[in-house]
Amino acid sequence: MKANQALYPIATMCRVLGVSTSGYHAWSQRPPSARARSDATLGERISEIHATSHGTYGSPRVHVELTETGVRVGRKRVARLMKALGLQGVSRRRAVRTTVRGAAPAAPDLVDRQFSAAQANKLWVADITYIPTASGFLYLAIVLDVFSRRIVGWSMAPTLEAKLAVDALDMALVVRKPRGVIHHSDRGSQYTSIAFGKRCRQAAVRPSMGSVADAYDNAMAESFFATLECELLDRHRFKNHGQARRAVFAFIEGFYNPRRRHSALAYLSPAEFERRHCTPLSPGPHKPGAVLAPVKDKPSGRACGASLTGPARGAKRCLRAGTKERAPHQAEQKNIAKEGKNTHQ
Questions:
Q1: Which of 131, 147, 293, 317 could in theory staple to 120 by disulfide, Cβ–Cβ 3.0 to 4.6 A?
Q2: Per residue in 203-250, pLDDT tens?
Q3: 3-class DSSP state for residue 79?
Q4: Which residues pair with 101 in a beta bridge?
Q5: Do 255 and 139 contact (CB within 8 A), yes or no?
């Protein structure tokens, strides 16, 4: 009625709609209710979260984001407000096969679709996809840590050569410094190449490959590519390779790894999941390390002693180690106190 009051008399519209004129005027002059004001404030916060996620978050992730910031609200209310504001998450497109089977012998399948790891740097999955641009395809190779779903290595090139996969592996090796990690991929020619096999032997990486023409044998890598396509590639058009490189870099290092909430990680980001479940063993830059006992292998990087189902076990190990470390110091303090007491006597 308010929108059409310039065209029709208020009294006529009230009579047609079956409402009283006084009731309409009372409603129009009444201030917004507390619920309406709360919805307006909450709607502004929802719009901010949706914009921060590059327009990719749906109601589940927006609800988790609100909960993390101390806002207590129901998920259905979030969905209702997002619908009223015209906000929605993104959906995935149909996958396109890009694997070219290599003629060289393939490595055995060491994973058998068991995509789980109790700690970081135990199982990596890798794959290659394409990024369409106006200047032609740009190919992206990634290495993903199964423990935290974090992209630990990646590389881009305009051609599908073995160097593309080797460069992604090299980045992961430099960043993570693993020991005996399993590297699982499909049987593409880049992963069955002599150059890639030689690099795996040099770094003591255990190659693993799934069966032919079966996406489920590398499902976790395929899942990341589906996320990339849904949340970035389907929503942008790139004029050249340089523009695509910058966008992919910003997505992986600026959003996916540090901030994007992952449903399989209890809606934590990969970086936050590692921070909560990994314990650094190497001393920090301003903190001297205590040597507990001589060891044959020097630990490097971060060692994660627990998964989602068992962080307490890793915590107990750390507690025992700390107790052993403090025991000699406590005994020395007792001896000093005893000598001082004898001297006074």
A1: 147
A2: 999 999 987 767 688 889 999 999 999 889 988 999 999 999 999 999
A3: helix
A4: 188
A5: no
3-state DSSP assignment of residue 68: helix
* Token duo for residue 222: 């395929």
pTM of the full structure: 0.59
Residues 32-44 have pLDDT tens digits of 788 888 888 888 8
d(CA 79, CA 40) in angstroms, rounded, equals: 14
Q: Fill in the DSSP letter of residue 133.
A: B
- CA distances in angstroms from 290 to 285, 287, 313, 325, listed in the order given: 14, 10, 22, 8
Name residue, tokens 């327009």. Answer: 55
Residue 215 structure tokens: 């996406």
For 3, left (φ over 0), alpha (ψ -120 to 50), or beta?
alpha
145, 148, 132: which is closest to 232 by C-alpha?
132
How does strand 302-303 pair with strand 150-157?
A: unpaired
Quickly count: other Cβ atoms within 10 Å of residue 122's Cβ: 17
E strands within the chain?
123-131, 138-145, 150-157, 182-185, 206-209, 279-280, 302-303
For 197-204, the CB contacts below 8 A with 24+ separation are 197/104, 199/166, 199/169, 199/170, 200/169, 203/169, 203/173, 204/179, 204/180
Q: What number of H helices and E strands is found in the chain?
A: 11, 7
**Tally of CA atoms within 13 A in the half-sphere of 198 that contains its CB:** 5
The CB density around residue 251, as the number of other CB atoms within 10 Å, is: 21
210 in Cβ contact with 217 (< 8 Å): yes
